Amino acid sequence: MNVRTLGLLLGLVIGMLVSAMINRPVEAGTRIDCWTRQDAVDYSYKGRHEGYEWGGGWWNDNDQDDTPGCATDGGSGCEGPDCSGFTFKSWALPNSSGATGYVKWTIGENVHGPYNSTSYRDGCNGACFNVCGNGTSNSCGAGSYDETMRMDAFAQDGHVGLLYNEDSNGYDHIIEAINNSAGTGIWQRNYRVQTAYDGMRRRNWCTP
Questions:
Q1: How confident is the model over 24-70, as pLDDT tens digits?
Q2: What angle do CA 83, 208, 188 make, to 5 degrees?
Q3: CA proximity to 114, closest of 92, 98, 103
Q4: Which of 71, 86, 122, 155 has the lowest CB atom count within 10 Å?
Q5: Rounded-to-integer distance, Cα 171 and Cα 109, Å
């Protein structure tokens, strides 16, 4: 084999390897066998006091927004998730619409997932389901505490927040990503008595 032929073969092999690396489906994060509600509580808490980025999906755990004033939306690299990306990672969902397995995403990994807030309200293509409320006509109601559980979500067309602690009289503490000025945190909300919100649950929570 002459040098020219060898060079062509090596170039072909290298090209195939590079193409395979570029085109192969990549799902960073770690596939795991179990993800409990308590896992989700602990994971989501690390987002408290961090930033917000529409379309974003990463944060760290130093209780501050490391890119303050960074309002370039669309997942451009500013710190902070948006509401649906925060729910996606906290629920440890796979990055495939409708999938119900478990993938633990590192908090610093900029992954958003396939769902927006409306997708959560409408059932995540089968990965979540309604436990109370009914679209925009009926709220869950102040008497719905026996229907919801910690780390369920309240979702409407435009926002989704996670149930961090149940309160009373229609109120709960919700952990959520809000906007560029407020960031991500825990606030008392009355989403369960607002008709725009449905109570949603991740399918196949793992029971330890």
A1: 233 479 999 999 999 999 999 999 999 999 998 999 999 998 887 77
A2: 35
A3: 98
A4: 71
A5: 32
**DSSP of 33-76:** S---HHHHHHHHHTTTT----TT-EE--SSSS-SSTT---TTTS
Q: How far is CA 92 from CA 16, 149, 178, 198, in A?
A: 33, 17, 20, 21
> What's the pLDDT tens digit per position in 98-131?
999 999 999 999 999 999 999 999 999 999 999 9
pLDDT band at 5 (very low <50, low <70, confident <90, very high): very low
Pairs from 48-51 (Cβ < 8 Å, separation ≥ 24): 48/175, 48/184, 48/185, 48/186, 49/183, 49/184, 49/185, 50/79, 50/80, 50/183, 50/184, 51/78, 51/79, 51/80, 51/180, 51/183, 51/184
Instruction: Give the sign of the dihedral formed by CA 128, CA 129, CA 134, CA 140.
Output: negative
Contact by Cβ (8 Å): 132, 141:
yes
Predicted TM-score of the model (pTM): 0.84
Does residue 206 sit in helix, strand or coil? coil
Report which of residues 13 and 115 the model is more confident about: 115
